[in-house]
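TEACHING EXERCISE
Course module: macromolecular assemblies
Task: Read the component lines below, then compare them to the predicted structure of the full complex.
Student: A.B.
Group: 4
Components provided:
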Amino acid sequence: MPRRLALRLIQALVVLIVLSFVIYGLIGLMPGDPIDLLAAGSPTMTSEDVARLKAVYGVGTPLVPRYLHWLGAALSGDLGYSRLTGLTVWRTLGGPLGHTMALMITGLALAQLFALPLGLAAALRERRALDHGLNLAAFACLSLPTFWVSLILIMGFAVGLRWLPASGVEDPGGGGLGDRIVHLVLPVAALAIASFGHYLRYMRAAAIESLRADWVRTARAKGASWTRVAFGHVLRNAMAPVVTLLGLDLGTLFSGVVVTETVFAYPGMGKLIYDAVINNDYNLALAALMLATTTTLIGSILADLAYAALDPRVRFQ
Amino acid sequence: MIAGTIAAHPALIRFGVHRPALAGFIVLVLLVGTALAAPFIEWAVGVDATAIDLGAMLSGPSAAHPLGTDQVGRDLLARVLRGGQVSLGVGLLTALVAAAIGTALGLAAGYLGGAVDAFLMRFTDGVIALPLLPLLIVLGALDPAKLGLAPDAFKSEIGGLARIVVIIALVGWTTVARLVRAATLTVRVQDYVRSAEAMGARPSHIILRHVLPNVVSPLIVATTLSIGNIVLLESALSFLGLGVQPPMPSWGNMLTAALEQMSSNPALAIWPGAMIFVTVLAFNLVGDGLQQALDPRAVRRI
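Instructor-supplied answer key:
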């Protein structure tokens, strides 16, 4: 297992370095010159600095030395300044990262809370009315455009009923924890609806697979009750593929977060990436995209580890 | 005789008895039919997608405007129809381009094997590791001048649509590539392929006669299921202002405007979103039905 983990980490590192080059190249193709933008966002830079940097690292110079310069600085912890906020990229990323974590974790947890038991229920009633109904509901959820769900939620609960706030993380002037929770309700609901369908279908498929296994028949033959078989055996076995997909899905979740945060004006990573790209904030866009990519890669490694932890057969291979 | 054989094909029967899939298929036929007939419908109802009427801004449903009007008095029904042409057209075209890229890379990886396979599959893993929508936002913001194109290359209608098709296809081929590679690997080692190789068949012959017919089913399923996702991605991009550019309507960019008119005319936010939902749901149901119908393991269920 340690060997396997080490191998995965090395692979992920190589992929990350290659992807950082790709992302750096793409960001450089956005309008404007990164050095001009860098200078605009950096208060300590003189015009001589700008001229010198442009000669060496401007858009006109070859990509590879420019990239290596960025990589060197990034590895030593210097991601430069954000043009949008005027602060260092590190400080700009801090707040949004926390907000997005809160949104993602609650959204995912809420989706799982409904999807896992309902997926199991659908599998136990395979090809009956309940299964068909849940399957259709799952398809409906994964066919809903997230930004439209967000819009409808705002129209219903914020503009119409006036129960919940439509945007932001807290009231102007800052409320307490309760105020922050109230602001999370609608974005979390939108995100949970966006992921619910996928997880229900994963869970259903995994549970059906488990139910066909010989040991289910054995357990039943030995007199174990259906509930015991369903929760003690099938659920645990079906969890392994579902957890794996949870890890692999972090990238997909980021897409949902971008849309949800933009509609709800929720200042997290998704909105940050969008704002950075729209405003040609090279340094910030680069760092935020790298962070999203790293998260996705870490998710897939965690998925591997969780799979091994839940399925002993993998550990001994 | 032939008609009878086709009608009685087991896969077709399995698809036919899968009621959600059949319903999805009927909805799709209606949607595509309506999109194609949009100019006739506009003419018959007497509405125009581009006519601005500031006197009738944000009006509710009426005889002249069956669904009401938008923020500059354009007819909503006509806009939804035109938006459907754009969204469906982009979705179908992108799915085909992505499937073509995926098939080519999957065939190359599976058939050539070795270092080519290892490189292409690591490359595929890398693309999958990229966060999709953030990446599309960056691709949507690229400067045409820096890509060696005319500065206003994306401003024209065709250029703008081509841009969306290309950027979504560039990230949407991975599933097909993996499927085709897996199928190619399986077919390659079959005895009949080996004997064909021993008899001197060229790679092109092996691929066209033996490999491709074996990947058609999974290819059709994956492509159908991908159309729904592509329609969702295009609408999200257009909603964020990086996809289809106004004044050309798409269901996504119509919702951007609706965001500001939420309290004055909610219908603006309801119709385009409902159309996206129905379209994507129909494609997903048909894809699911095809998967069950074409999956050989499904045979025993009937």
